[in-house]
Design brief:
- This protein has about 80 residues and is α+β, with helices and mostly antiparallel strands.
- It has one domain.
- The protein contains 2 helices and 2 strands.
- Strands 1-2 form a two-stranded antiparallel sheet.
- Helix 1 packs parallel to helix 2.
- It is globular, with a radius of gyration of 14 Å.
- The mean pLDDT is about 80.
Length: about 80
């Protein structure tokens, strides 16, 4: 995937820059996240894990999260 090499290179060269990656299916999104997480781990260290609606979710320093549902009890 040529875009992945470019994304990885840019993440190293400009760690504070914003990036957005999008795909259509959950399977493809899971694959993308696994590959991108590895690059993030190398840059920021270990992940922090939270229990999410569909199971554990790992995040790294600098990750941005997009919520697709609301939870009024938690003010989200």
């Amino acid at each position: 995937m040529p875009w992945f090499a470019a994304w990885s290179r840019d993440a190293v060269e400009r760690p504070g820059a914003s990036r957005f990656v999008f795909d259509y299916t959950n399977r493809d999104v899971d694959m993308l996240n696994a590959e991108l997480r590895q690059v993030r781990r190398e840059l920021t260290g270990a992940d922090v894990e939270f229990n999410a609606k569909h199971g554990p979710a790992a995040f790294a320093i600098g990750d941005r999260v997009q919520f697709i549902d609301t939870d009024k009890k938690r003010f989200l």
